[in-house]
Amino acid sequence: MHLPIPAILAGLLASALCAAGLAWYFAKPIRQLRQGFDAAANGDLAVRVAPGMGQRRDELADLGRDFDRMTERVQSVVEGQKRLLHDVSHEMRSPLARLQAAVGLARQQPERMEGLLARVERESERMNQLVGELLTLSRLEAGSAGAVGPVDMDELLAQLVEDARFEGTARRVTVSYEPGRMAEVLADPELLHRAIENVVRNALRFSPPGGIVRIEAGVGGDGAFHIVVLDHGPGVAEADLEAIFTPFYRGAAPGDDDGYGLGLAIARRVVQVGNGTIGASNAADAGLSVSIRLPILASS
Fold first, then answer.
1. Computed from CA positions of residues 223, 230, 159, 186, in that sequence, does the dihedral angle turn out positive or negative?
2. Are residues 206 and 288 in the same domain?
3. Cα(first)–Cα(last) distance of the chain, in Å?
4. 3-state SS class at 157
5. What's the mean pLDDT in 58-67?
6. Do 286 and 184 share a domain, yes or no?
7. 202 and 283 in a common domain
8. Domain end point (choices 29, 45, 75)
9. How far is CA 30 from each of CA 33, 36, 42, 49, rounded to the nearest angstrom?
10. Is the C or the N end of the chain the one with fewer CB within 10 Å?
């Protein structure tokens, strides 16, 4: 039997070339992924592999894009943690420096002991407040909020407005409350109260003496519960309307340097945990308007 040796050799050569091409086609993205994982493991979170895969539309290309999304998210979280650590260090430095100064003066001038002890107490309270807010924010970022349950917004807002009016009296700021149809929402009542209180206290802080803080609340036409807090302060630059919800952002409140810029950051995280939204805009006439939208319970 005569075998077509040239044809067989040509077929084997074609098969070998085809196998080599397929091996190269699949091995190249696998090598890129491996190099990407090695780089990420060594701390290079800026590495991206999808651009090197060209126009591929297979599972390996999908895996490459998933890898890029993962490293981008991890990079964002790590950079956020670095910024937070830097900001915390900066914020802690000032009260610690004042504490050290007060202790030094107390040793040098014992006759001023009473006033210096009051200063120590005040700075200690500021540090305690900062640590408490950081723990709250950390707990929310970790997704470990407290037990959730139905929250009666009528009751919660009535108490909150009463507290706001009491604080506003000391600041000579009027608090106007316009309630609409009330409902229940599903949330951690303590955290939700704190979130809305942070928004209201921020409005009080930036309102000038004789100003008005207006609070509107009720079920909107979209079936969600809406809260709008409007102050008559200086407002915020358009470019900073998103930044005010980031930790340690602080605007210039005239004659008032209280706070650490964590209140609105905590408010946003609490609202997001409850599947709601929060945003800010400058009012047409003056001041800042902060809007909160929360889904209501189906039975409400």
1. positive
2. yes
3. 89
4. helix
5. 79
6. yes
7. yes
8. 75
9. 5, 10, 18, 10
10. N
Q: What whole-number distance in Å separates Cα of residue 212 and Cα of residue 231? A: 6
Q: Is residue 300 part of a domain?
A: no
- Residue 16: count other Cβ atoms within 10 Å of its Cβ: 10
The 10s digit of each residue's pLDDT in 265-274 is: 889 989 988 8
Mean pLDDT value across residues 19-41? 73
Last residue of a domain, one of 75, 94, 109: 75
- Please compute the mean of the pLDDT values over residues 189-211 and round it to a whole number: 91
Instruction: Determine the Cα–Cα distance for residues 228 and 126; give it in Å rounded to an integer.
Output: 29
Query: Measured between alpha carbons, how far is residue 201 from residues 25, 74, 291 in Å?
Result: 61, 34, 14
Main-chain dihedrals φ then ψ at residue 228, nearest 5 degrees: -125, 125
Domain count for the chain, please give it.
Answer: 3
Annotated catalytic residue 90:
yes
Token pair belonging to 283:
């009012």
| Structural domain range at position 100 | 80-141
Q: Does 130 share its domain with 158?
A: no
Return contacts of 80-88, CB within 8 angstroms, 24+ apart: 84/247, 84/248, 87/247, 87/248, 88/130, 88/134
Q: What is the pLDDT of residue 65?
A: 83
Q: Which of these ranges, 146-155, 222-231, 288-297, has the smallest mean pLDDT?
A: 146-155
Assess if residue 118 is contained within a domain.
Answer: yes
Indicate the pTM of the whole model. Answer: 0.68
165 located within any domain: yes
